[in-house]
């Protein structure tokens, strides 16, 4: 659980590896998608080589993102279920956004209410992207659907894609805003002070579990 007395393991290596692999695949898929949606930045598809290669790789990158998020869903869904204490976070959202601490304990578990909302929106967006992307995938499935369905799939894919990009940008902003979050996702460890300040209920649960383990050893 701990690396030393002041550190707590927050994210295991396999989870961090999956997270950063998804980040890379999503970045490349998003860049190529944006290059087709906005012709003025068509040069961005060059990150994947030629435009033809970008069109070939884009759907496979999307499937890789979906697979990675499926793994992350299985690992983290239990921590992202709604809890009664989430209402406290919403009531004090102004203090949270202003990074003001003190007053009523927020009673935050491993993930706060905002992170939970983001989690479910990301999962919903990637599901829409997968289904719409498969429908419009010209090389394999597009010929099986009428033109009306293809047009709706293209529209849904574009809206979900832009929505997911905005959600990821919000995720990045919040990770930078809360000092120590990026380090935690790189090394896997956060300080006890960080856990106590930003995820007090989770920190308390870990403390109780460790105290119980020490008591059982005596």
What descriptors fit this protein?
single chain, 218 residues, mainly alpha, Fumarate Reductase Cytochrome B subunit, 2 strands, elongated
Please tell me about this protein's structure.
- The protein is mainly α and 218 residues long.
- It has a single domain (7-217), classed as Transmembrane di-heme cytochromes, Chain C (Fumarate Reductase Cytochrome B subunit).
- The chain is 68% helix and 3% strand.
- It has helices at 13-37, 51-76, 86-91, 93-97, 113-135, 147-177, 181-187, 192-198, 200-217; strands at residues 7-9, 189-191.
- A two-stranded antiparallel sheet has the order 1-2.
- Helix 1 packs antiparallel against helix 2 (51-76), helix 2 (51-76) crosses helix 5 (113-135) and helix 5 runs antiparallel to helix 6.
- The longest helix is centred in the last third of the chain and has 31 residues, at 147-177.
- It starts with 6 loop residues before the first strand and ends with a helix.
- The mean pLDDT is 89.
Write a compact overview of the structure shown:
With 218 residues, the protein is mainly alpha-helical. It has helices spanning 13-37, 51-76, 86-91, 93-97, 113-135, 147-177, 181-187, 192-198, 200-217, and strands spanning 7-9, 189-191. It has one domain (7-217): Transmembrane di-heme cytochromes, Chain C (Fumarate Reductase Cytochrome B subunit, Up-down Bundle), CATH 1.20.950.
């Amino acid at each position: 659980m701990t690396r030393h007395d002041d550190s707590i393991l927050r994210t295991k290596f396999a989870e961090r590896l999956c997270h950063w692999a998804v980040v890379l695949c999503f970045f490349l898929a998003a860049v190529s998608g944006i290059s087709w949606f906005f012709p003025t930045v068509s040069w961005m598809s060059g990150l994947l080589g030629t435009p033809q290669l970008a069109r070939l790789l884009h759907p496979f990158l999307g499937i890789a993102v979906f697979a990675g998020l499926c793994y992350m869903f299985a690992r983290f869904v239990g921590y992202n279920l709604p809890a009664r204490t989430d209402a406290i976070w919403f009531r004090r959202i102004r203090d949270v956004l202003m990074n003001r601490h003190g007053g009523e304990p927020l009673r935050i578990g491993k993930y706060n209410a905002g992170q939970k909302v983001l989690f479910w929106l990301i999962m919903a967006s990637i599901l829409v992207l997968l289904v719409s992307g498969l429908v419009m995938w010209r090389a394999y499935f597009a010929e099986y659907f009428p033109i009306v369905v293809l047009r709706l799939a293209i529209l849904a894919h574009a809206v979900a894609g832009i929505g997911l990009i905005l959600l990821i940008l919000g995720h990045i902003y919040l990770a930078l805003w809360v000092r120590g979050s990026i380090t935690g996702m790189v090394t896997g460890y956060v300080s006890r002070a960080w856990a106590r300040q930003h995820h007090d209920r989770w920190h308390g649960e870990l403390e109780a579990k460790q105290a119980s383990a020490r008591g059982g050893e005596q």
